[in-house]
Amino acid sequence: MLVPLLDLKAQYATIKAEVHAAIAEVMESQHFILGPKVEECEKAIAYYSGSSYAIGVSSGSDALLACLMAENIGPGDEVITTPYTFFATVGAIARLGATPVFVDIDPLTYNIDVSQISSKVTSRTRAIIPVHLYGQMADMEAVMAVAEKYGLVVIEDAAQAIGAEYKGRRAGSIGNYGCFSFFPSKNLGAAGDGGMVVTNDAQRAERLKCLRGHGSKPKYHHKIVGGNFRLDAIQAAIVSAKLPHLDKWTAARQRNAKMYDKLFSGAGVAMNASGSGHVGLPRVVMNRHIFNQYVIRVSRRDELQAALKKRGIGTEVYYPVPMHVQECFAYLGKKAGSFPESERAARETLALPIYPELSEAQLCYVVECVCDFFAAGASSNQTAPEAVGSQLKR
Ligand SMILES: *Cc1c(COP(=O)(O)O)cnc(C)c1O
Predict the structure, then answer these.
(1) For 282-292, what is the mean pLDDT?
(2) Within 13 Å, how many C-alpha atoms sit on residue 66's CB side?
(3) Which mutation among 68, 157, 239, 318 tests ligand 1's pocket best, with the greatest number of atoms within 8 A of CB?
(4) If I label 317, which of 6, 29, 33, 392 is the partner at 20 to 30 A Cα–Cα?
(5) In this structure, what are the phi and psi dihedrals at residue 140, rounded to the nearest 5 degrees?
(6) Are residues 165 and 74 in the same domain?
(7) Whole-angstrom distance, CA of residue 263 vs CA of residue 366
(8) Residues 216 and 338 in one domain
(9) What pLDDT, on the 0 to 100 scale, is given for residue 272?
C-alpha cells in the first residue's frame, strides 16, 4: 500500500470542474492582476476568518513582510517570535533589518511559550509574531495581554491555520494582523503562490493595499516604498472556488486525527502521562485544530521515518533545524542549547499523512507500520522521548 504525505491529485479529482470554470472565467476576462476576482476572494476570506478587511498578497511570506513594513519596522527594532517555525516568519523580520528575538515553544502544542514572552520585551520591542503551528492556535489571550501591556503590534502567522479557532475566535482575527498562505500544501491551497492579510483596522487595511502595489496612490504617486505583493486573479479565483469545500476538508482531517489517536492508543503505543509508550500524540489544547499537520513525537525519529519510507509511507520532518541555529542567523549569536524545547521538537517530531482523502485502510496501515517499527526495536536500549504529558501546564 502507498500512503503519500499529501495527495493533491485526490482532491483535485473532486473539484476539477469548478476549478476549471474559475480559471476559464479569468481567461475570458483577461483581467489577471487584482480586479473583481481578487476582491471577491478577499471578501470571502475576511468573512471566513471573522475579520473586517482582507488584502490579497503574493504569498504567506509576503503577507508577513508587508505587515512589518506597514508598521515601519526596521533596523533597531526587535520582533519576538519562536525559533520553531517555517523560515518565512523569521526571514521577514531579518529582511527588514529588524532583530528577531526568540522565545522557546511550549512542548505540548509546539507554539510559543507565552509564559516566557514578557522576559524578552525590551524598549526596542515593536511586535510579536505568534505562529499557529500545524493548525492549532497559540495562546492568544496571553499574547494579547503582553502586547497590550507593552504597546506591541501582534501579527498572527496563521499560514497553517486558516479556520482554526481559539475560544471561538478565528485565526487571524485576534491580533492586529493575520497572515494566511495559499501555498498548495496548506489546507486552502492555490495552484501556485498566494496569500492574504486580514485585519480589523481600516487604516491598516488601506496602508497594506497601498504597500502591495509599490506604495502608489494614486497611480505613479508613491508616498511610501512598497513592493509587488499582489495576488493573481487566477489564484484568487481558484481559492474562492475551493473555499466552500474547506470546512468539509477540515472535518475530514479532524476525523483522521481522531482515528490515529484511537488506533495508536488501542495498539498500546501512545505515550501516557507517566511517559510510557512510544508515540507522543498531538494535543488539542485550543478549540479548533485544523490539522494542517498531524505530528507525533518519537524517539529514533530518523530510523522510523526511513522504515516508513521503505513501506511506502510518506512523512516529513517539520522542522529539522530551528531558526536560531540556521547558518544565516548565526549573527544573532544564539548557540545550540539556547531553546531546548525547540531543539528537542526538531529531533523528535514526525508529520504523518493526514490529508482529507485518506482512507481508513491507509490510516490503519500507517499505524500498523509505526507499531511494527517499535515492536521490532523493543529490545533496543534506546530511551523513549521524555514525557511531556507529565508537565502539562493546561
Ligand atoms: C507556509 C508558511 C509561511 C509562508 O507561506 P508562503 O505562502 O509559502 O510564502 C509562513 N509561515 C508559516 C508558519 C508557514 O507554514
Answers:
(1) 90
(2) 37
(3) 157
(4) 392
(5) -70, -30
(6) yes
(7) 10
(8) no
(9) 82
Q: What would the mean pLDDT of 201-225 be, rounded to a whole number? A: 95
C-alpha cell read off for 308: 516508513
Q: How far is CA 44 from CA 54, 198, 273, 349, in A?
A: 9, 11, 42, 35
What residue owns the CA closest to ligand 1's atom 5?
60
* pLDDT grade for 386, boundaries at 50, 70 and 90: low
Question: How many domains is the chain built from?
Answer: 2
Residue 350's domain spans which residues? Answer: 246-392
Of 291, 285, 282, the C-alpha closest to 348 is: 282
Q: Which three cell numbers stand for residue 364?
A: 490503519
Place of cell 476570506: 45
CATH number at residue 382: 3.90.1150.10
Q: How far does the centroid of ligand 1 lie from the alpha carbon of residue 86, in Å?
A: 6
Using the atom order of ligand 1, give the atom closest to the CA of residue 59.
Answer: 7
Q: pLDDT value at position 300?
A: 95
Cα dihedral 331, 337, 338, 340 in deg (nearest 10): 140
> Cell match 511570506: residue?
61
**Structural domain ending residue among the three candidates 244, 268, 287:** 244
- pTM here? 0.95
Contacts of 378 (CB under 8 A, 6+ apart): none
Which is the closest atom of ligand 1 to the Cα of 61? 9
d(CA 259, CA 357): 14
**pLDDT surpasses 60 at 380:** no
Q: What pLDDT, on a 0 to 100 scale, did the predictor assign at position 391?
A: 39
